From TrEMBL:
One of its GO terms (cellular component) is oxoglutarate dehydrogenase complex. It catalyses: N(6)-[(R)-lipoyl]-L-lysyl-[protein] + 2-oxoglutarate + H(+) = N(6)-[(R)-S(8)-succinyldihydrolipoyl]-L-lysyl-[protein] + CO2. Its main location: mitochondrion. The 2-oxoglutarate dehydrogenase complex catalyzes the overall conversion of 2-oxoglutarate to succinyl-CoA and CO(2). It contains multiple copies of three enzymatic components: 2-oxoglutarate dehydrogenase (E1), dihydrolipoamide succinyltransferase (E2) and lipoamide dehydrogenase (E3). It comes from Orchesella cincta (Springtail). Gene3D superfamilies: 3.40.50.12470, 3.40.50.970, TPP helical domain. This is 2-oxoglutarate dehydrogenase complex component E1. It is found in: Mitochondrion; Nucleus. Keywords: Calcium, Glycolysis, Isopeptide bond, Magnesium, Metal-binding, Mitochondrion, Nucleus, Oxidoreductase, Thiamine pyrophosphate, Transit peptide, Ubl conjugation. Belongs to the alpha-ketoglutarate dehydrogenase family. Pfam families: 2-oxogl_dehyd_N, E1_dh, OxoGdeHyase_C, Transket_pyr. GO terms for molecular function: metal ion binding; oxoglutarate dehydrogenase (succinyl-transferring) activity; thiamine pyrophosphate binding.
Length: 915
């Protein structure tokens, strides 16, 4: 009854209410019961005493408010204490001792005094020393009691300081889930929550020793080589291993990692356990045994399967290769992770997880981080939680953080003390744990929390390892040029290993002999690896693949064009299913315009004629029939930017009710995924690239909304797609679809910048509904294959000119030729495959027109399009023949924005083509 009264005084009889009020007000035994003047219900605005805390009992009997509840001062004091507790939870990180150098606080623009004011503000005004020993009831939103329900104010402040203002600064109060906030509080606040047993401490020391020893060994053997070592943040290795250990306990079998160059060799050696001789041989000037140009050692990836000796479970570890665009690998890792989850049937991400490492300057400076975070909760892109680790050097290359970001933290943009402003990580409610990298046990505690958070809630989490670089940007850089004060402090400091080993030795956890033995044992392993590396004669880049496709290429001719035709009954079946309304059409109401589109498609199927949208559906459907997974991703791909695809039909009156025809072709077909993406090219293209790396027997496609929109993904195209095979022997089956065509719609909607990327499918815009841009079933049945060129079917061998072109311009030229009556004088051949260049077929075609003038015609400007790629290859093929160019002149812009000028340029193109 008393507990009920604490929650709501009106829930008990008025006589009991009076009794409890007297008792709570401090009445002595035997004096609490008084016959109430009447049995009326207390006034409705009476507060439940649970809101005031146990301290209310300190009000003496007979004091003002004794009969009606606690005094105003008691209420104010308890509310102030609750506000203090909440302030520490929300803002304690501002005064946490996060910097190992003790140069700055978390907030770069605040000093110690300012930071403390941020936490306690005016809540302590009016308190005196004697108040520090007053007892206050703890609210339900804190766990500092560790089982106790009330504490003195002194002890409350002490425990809050220990939880939030020592080596860990936690940001989580912005999360809009009480369950998740309380979960984090329970991991941080209870007394002794961060205590480890002796074996765990010894394991931390051993792993830290390995991380230090490797860097020292590399520095000794290759003192003049860049290696982007981990000195100053060696705790990263024990941290990553702890996350992997804990995640393995929760069922994870595969971890896919992406990281910048700093510390990569240490991660490969001590986290992945890549053979040391393979790592050390990268320092030698050896030739590659594989095709390709290769890459520097700190950009390479790897793939390892091994036994996790801590958990005694097998684990697969992959580090994805990446360039010096530090964060460009982020979406690639996420796509690869999502694909592995898909093929394993891991719909909740319990078996496969991703871990992303970041640099502090890159994390806050590169927009791809934000784009990747925004994929984390999208249904077709989520990886069910990523552990992010920021190696926070507190400096960029040479730039002070006060000049490289506007936010207090590299993890986001908080202004002053408002905890509700948005962080990069906050947009997806990811908690952020800042931690002093020179406190190994605090780091490991945070790693345990992060791994369990990910396993429990399947959401992202960020660990900000606040550390430093003992050397400059690399080992041959001089940091004193620009950061003299910081590096004077660094060079006078003991490193984290010395500090931690000394601490454990002083506590009797390990002896000096044991510390020495651990170090010497690993040094012998390093020496053995070095000796082994001397026997390596060449570099095998296939040993550095992060996604090996075992057996996929063996015995196959990469230049062979295989038959692609399918049986007519298959085409008809797919076409009819794709052209039919949902089976429950009477209940499933589709748009009237779609009814007309479906009817038109059915008519094409019956006439054995195929346009682009129907042909695409038949291609996808025939693969699905064969068990090949197809995934199409990009902005508005479900409908198609030009309203041509309609792979998802929507009920016009019921939200989220959809029907996908290509998912309902055959009972045993492969799954088909078509998904509208976020408005991101860089992030989503990177994601699909990573997805395509996992399984060679899949068709993964990304479509740009317009061809030129892929420009913001150019980093992925240049660094991963166009050059990935040469640098990393990377294997990918990604297909890019770039809508293309010069139609007077301005620069950003005209070109797909073909000259930047010849390995792409240039898909049409106006040709989607062009009456002549259609094919017969006869061109798709067994015995047919992809036509690398399409010869002119009517021009005679006596034609005076042979035009080569590609894309939409063919239909414009064909129409203009007919209008000029030049069908017997001009032959027009379409080049459907530009790369690899079809030398054999081009040669045969030219031989058919022995006396014809050879001309390449394109819509794009002369410095754009395919001309710069085609011209030298045509000259190689026909060194003694002139190859003319007809098209627009050189321009920095891809197209004019004037419709009048566009038509004028187009007319000039025809004149030059037929001259």
């Amino acid at each position: 009854m008393y507990n009920s009264w604490l929650q709501d005084p009106s829930s008990v009889h008025a006589s009991w209410d009076a009794f409890f009020r007297q008792t709570y007000g401090g009445a002595q035994p035997g004096e609490a019961y008084q016959r109430p003047p009447n049995l009326a219900t207390p006034e409705p605005n009476t507060l439940p005493l649970s809101a005031f805390g146990a301290g209310a009992a300190l009000v003496p009997s007979g004091a003002p408010g004794a009969l009606g509840g606690p005094s105003d001062k008691v209420i104010d004091d308890h509310l102030a204490v609750q506000a203090i507790i909440r302030s520490y939870q929300a803002r304690g990180h501002h005064i946490a001792r996060l910097d190992p150098l003790e140069i700055t606080f978390a907030d770069l623009h605040a000093n110690d005094k300012d930071a403390k004011a941020i936490v306690v503000r005016n809540y302590m005004e009016g308190y005196e020393e004697k108040d520090m020993d007053r007892v206050f009831k703890l609210p339900a939103t804190t766990f500092i009691g560790g089982g106790e329900k009330q504490l003195t104010l002194r002890e409350i402040l002490n425990r809050l300081e220990n939880a939030y203002c020592r080596s860990i600064g936690a940001e989580f109060m912005f999360i809009n889930s009480l369950e998740q906030c309380n979960w984090i509080r329970q991991k941080l606040e209870p007394p002794k929550v961060m205590e480890f047993d002796t074996e765990t401490k010894r394991l931390i020391l051993a792993r830290l020793t390995r991380a230090f020893s490797l860097e020292a060994f590399l520095a000794k053997k290759w003192s003049s080589e860049k290696r982007f070592g981990l000195e100053g943040c060696e705790i990263l290795i024990p941290a990553m291993k702890q996350i992997i250990d804990k995640s393995t306990e929760y069922g994870v079998e595969s971890v896919i990692m992406g990281m910048p160059h700093r510390g990569r060799l240490n991660v490969l050696a001590n986290v992945c356990r890549k053979p040391l001789e393979q790592i050390f041989s990268q320092f030698a000037a050896l030739e590659a045994a594989d095709d390709g140009s290769g890459d520097v050692k700190y950009h390479l990836g790897t793939y390892i399967e091994r036994l996790n000796r801590v958990t005694n479970k097998n684990i697969r570890l992959a580090v994805v290769a990446n360039p010096s665009h530090l964060e460009a690998v982020d979406p690639v890792v996420q796509g690869k992770t999502r694909a592995e989850q898909f093929y394993r049937g891991d719909n909740e991400g319990k078996k496969v997880m991703s871990m992303l490492l970041h640099g502090d300057a890159a994390f806050c400076g590169q927009g791809i981080v934000f784009e990747t975070f925004h994929l984390s909760d999208l249904p077709d892109y989520t990886t069910h939680g990523t552990v992010h680790i920021v190696v926070n050097n507190q400096i960029g290359f040479t730039t002070d953080p006060r000049h490289s970001r506007s936010s207090p933290y590299c993890t986001g943009a908080q202004e002053d003390i408002d905890p509700e402003n948005v962080y990069v990580a906050r947009v997806v409610n990811a908690p952020i744990f800042h931690v002093n990298a020179d406190d190994p046990e605090a780091v490991i505690h945070v790693c345990n929390i992060a791994a369990e958070w990910r396993a429990t809630f399947h959401k992202d989490v960020v660990i900000d390892l606040v550390c430093y670089r003992r050397n400059g940007h690399n080992e041959i850089d001089e940091p004193m040029f620009t950061q003299p004060l910081m590096y004077r402090k660094i060079r006078s400091m003991k490193n984290a290993l010395e500090k931690y080993a000394g601490k454990l030795s002083a506590a009797g956890v390990v002896s000096q002999e044991e510390i020495k033995d651990v170090k010497e044992k690993y040094e012998r392993i390093l020496e053995d690896g070095y000796v082994g590396s001397q026997k390596v004669t060449n570099i095998k880049y296939k040993d550095w693949l992060d996604s090996p496709w075992s057996g996929f290429f063996e015995g196959k001719d990469p230049m062979k064009v295989s038959p692609t035709g399918v049986h007519e009954e298959t085409l008809t079946h797919i076409g009819k299913r794709f052209s039919s309304p949902p089976p429950n059409a009477a209940e499933f109401q589709i748009h009237k315009g779609l009814e007309r589109i479906l009817k038109s498609r059915m008519e094409m199927v019956e006439s054995r004629t195929v346009d682009w949208a129907l042909g695409e559906a038949m291609a996808f459907g025939s693969l699905l029939k064969e068990g090949i997974h197809v995934r199409l991703s990009g902005q508005d791909v479900e409908r198609g930017t030009f309203s041509h695809r309609h792979h998802v039909l929507h009920h016009q009156k019921v939200d989220k009710a959809t029907y996908r025809p290509l998912c309902n072709l055959y009972p045993d077909q492969a799954p088909y995924t078509v998904c509208n993406s976020s408005l991101s090219e860089f992030g989503v293209l990177g994601f699909e690239l990573g997805y395509s790396m996992t399984n060679p027997n899949a068709l993964v496609l990304w479509e740009a909304q317009f061809g030129d929109f892929s420009n913001t993904a150019q980093c992925i195209i240049d660094q991963f797609i166009s050059s990935g095979q040469s640098k990393w022997v990377r294997q990918t089956g990604l297909v890019m679809l770039l809508p293309h065509g010069m139609e007077g719609m301005g620069p950003e909607h005209s070109s797909a910048r073909l000259e930047r990327k010849p390995l792409i499918i240039m898909t049409p815009k106006s040709l989607l509904r062009h009456p002549e841009a259609r094919s017969s079933f006869d061109e798709m049945t067994p015995g047919t294959d992809f036509q690398r060129i399409i010869p002119d079917p009517t021009a005679p061998a006596t034609a005076r000119k042979l035009i080569f072109c590609t894309g939409k311009v063919y239909y414009d030229l064909k129409k203009a030729r007919a209008e000029r009556g030049l069908d017997n004088e001009i032959a027009i051949t379409r080049v459907e495959q530009i790369s690899p260049f079809p030398y054999d077929l081009i040669k045969d075609e030219v031989n058919k027109y022995a006396n014809a003038q050879l001309t390449w015609v394109q819509e794009e400007h002369k410095n754009s399009g395919a001309w710069c790629y085609v011209q030298p290859r045509m000259r190689t093929l026909f060194p003694d023949r002139e190859i003319k160019y007809a098209g627009r002149h050189i321009s920095a812009s891809t197209a004019t924005g004037s419709k009048h000028m566009h038509l004028k340029e187009q007319a000039q193109l025809y004149e030059e083509s037929f001259a």
